[in-house]
Design goal:
There is one protein chain. The chain is of the alpha+beta class. The chain has a single domain (14-153), classed as Glutaredoxin. The chain contains five helices and nine strands; from the N terminus they run E-E-E-H-H-E-H-E-H-E-E-E-E-H. It has helices spanning 44-55, 57-62, 78-85, 98-103, 144-153, and strands spanning 14-17, 22-24, 32-37, 65-71, 90-93, 106-111, 114-119, 123-126, 132-136. The strands form two sheets. It has a seven-stranded mixed β-sheet with strand order 2-1-5-4-3-8-9. The termini are far apart.
Length: 155
């Protein structure tokens, strides 16, 4: 797993969102993009992380940041998660984990003594020109939004 770092160009990507519409990085030029990778919709940790981002979306938008959650979930699972948690940002389906691979967040994990490949919970702030500005890899699901907002407020 070779994770991208600040200063790297973000990989061009096109993924389907919860409405089965294609979202690509190219379309987002001129905005900061927070791409947060999460393992699976409607699981406890992923739910807490999404709720905290939902509750703080206004502050993120004040910094010209658009939020996208990326997981290997099928497109059909995403609207259920958005509706259940009343999320106010888009979720993207990376079923074949090609975008996770490109960002370097797909790799070996260990859970309850089992080893498997999966998405690591890491977020990337991409600047208006498509360069990775900041990598967030040290946070909990409860304080992820605080770590991001602290960074944005202190720059």
């Amino acid at each position: 797993m070779q994770m991208l770092q600040a200063g790297d160009n973000a990989p061009a990507f096109s993924l389907l969102n919860e409405n089965n519409q294609t979202v690509s990085l190219r379309e987002l030029a001129g905005k900061k993009v927070l791409m947060y990778f999460y393992p699976k919709a409607m699981t406890p940790g992923c739910t807490i992380q999404a709720q905290c981002l939902r509750d703080n979306i206004g502050e993120l938008e004040q910094h010209n940041v658009v939020v996208f959650g990326v997981s290997p979930d099928a497109v059909k699972r995403l609207p259920k998660f958005i509706e259940k948690e009343q999320l106010n940002f888009s979720l993207l389906s990376d079923e074949d984990h090609s975008v996770a691979d490109a960002f370097g967040v797909w790799g070996p994990k260990k859970f309850m003594g089992k080893e498997f490949d999966g998405i690591h919970r890491i977020s990337f702030l991409i600047d208006e020109q498509g360069t990775i500005e900041k990598v967030f890899d040290k946070f909990t699901t409860k304080n992820h939004h605080e770590v991001v907002l602290t960074y944005l407020s202190n720059k």
